[in-house]
Amino acid sequence: MRTENVQMLTAHHQLIKNDGDDVIQGLTQTPKILPSKYFYDDRGSELFEQICELPEYYPTRTEAGILREYANEIAQITGKCELIELGSGSSTKTIFLLDAYQKLANLSKYVPIDISGGILKVSVLKLQKKYPNLSIDGLVGTYEQALIKLASNASSSRMVFFLGSSIGNFNPQESDKFLSQVAYALNPGDYFLLGMDLQKPKDILEAAYNDNQGITAAFNLNMLSHLNGQFQGNFDLNLFTHQAIYNQADTQIEMYLHSHKSHWVSLEPLDLKVFLESGEKILTEISRKFDLAIMQKELEMHGLRTLKVWTDPQQWFGLILCQA
Ligand code: AVI
Hints:
By secondary structure, the protein is an alpha/beta fold. It contains eleven helices and 15 strands. The strands form three sheets. The protein has a nine-stranded mixed β-sheet, with helices on both faces. Helix 3 packs antiparallel against helix 10 (215-231) and helix 7 (143-151) packs parallel to helix 8. N,N-dimethyl-L-histidine is lined by residues 51, 59, 164-166, 168-169, 209, 216, 285, 287. Keywords: Methyltransferase, Transferase.
């Protein structure tokens, strides 16, 4: 199926159809967890865009500042290539790269990839207006589906990029698997640009995930609405509160939904009935905070050699450009 410039990597019902095994597994284990991919229905993606604008949420504007400053240098290093963005969302920060590559006539194509078809279609239309001569091919799908497609597609030189510290939402095993898939998808000489949030004092981190306007809380709670819609669940959002804490030992933010009453929840199509104690917490997300030197070693272990690293003056966020 192909609509405008946005292609589904698989039929839409297959993409959103999910047998829910991960929900069953997560809610029947102790402590309970829910996979963070369930944040991102269309409403969740919108809320995430709002998070990116919050005064406390520094990662987006810090990374944007680094890109604004160094996009030309990145384009000079890689030379002409196809730009492929994993988890493109609204592609706001990508503009810096697109402008720099266009200026140097180094851009052959832009391929934004996102799980949320709604937001992808809007951003492809917007970008197509801004860059009428640029070939833009949006792909709706998971990272895994996208990387499989890329691996089977030996084209010109490419730079895959993964911004916003989304890698921080993978646990170490998932991150390792993801980097293996990236390395496998790239041809020798292709580039990978990775954005990551760096370790910093706890108070700054906790404020970023417990904003005053309650947008992050709404984002966290929206996961339950998404599950209610997708699996006919009966989560009562009023019985949960959002909580985000920094786990210093694991250098990660942990986001929880805290049940403040003992109650049952059922998700009929999954044949699942779950009891939540008063005070029980469901882990909905980890957001790991990185050390640049350690990340470079990890990339190297996957055959991705660092070419250059950029940070902001406070060293709050980092970008690593590497080559396969
Ligand atoms: C998408 N990801 C990198 C965000 C983060 O900071 O880990 C998701 C997020 N969760 C709460 N606020 C933002």
